[in-house]
Amino acid sequence: MADFYLTKHNKVDRFGKVTVRYAGRLRHLGIGTGHRGTRVLLLIHDNRVTTSDATTGEILTEHHLDATKDYQAPTWRKPPN
After folding, report:
1. Cβ atoms within 10 Å of 66's Cβ, excluding its own
2. C-alpha distances in Å from residue 65, one per residue of 21, 37, 55, 68, 81
3. Which DSSP symbol is given to 81?
């Protein structure tokens, strides 16, 4: 499988999630309800996604996408302040 890179701008919904299309289907990435309404930048490399605050650049979460699951729990999440 060839490497691919993609960036996507999104906004965290009221449930603390954003969506990204992977393997032909929409996947829901859990960011956290504390970030509701936050504009984010998704940096996608193959099956890895890094989510950062689009305004500050602060990294919020990292995900490893699993094509067998709809909801994608973060593999790393920024500790709460």
Report:
1. 14
2. 10, 23, 25, 9, 26
3. -
Rounded CA separation 35/21 (Å): 21
Q: Which tens digits make up the pLDDT trace of 33-54?
A: 999 999 999 999 999 999 999 9
Structure tokens belonging to residue 69: 């699951």
**4-30 per-position pLDDT tens digit:** 789 999 999 999 999 999 999 999 999
In terms of Cα–Cα distance, which of 53, 52, 73 is closest to 63? 73
Which single residue is written with the structure tokens 């990435």? Answer: 29
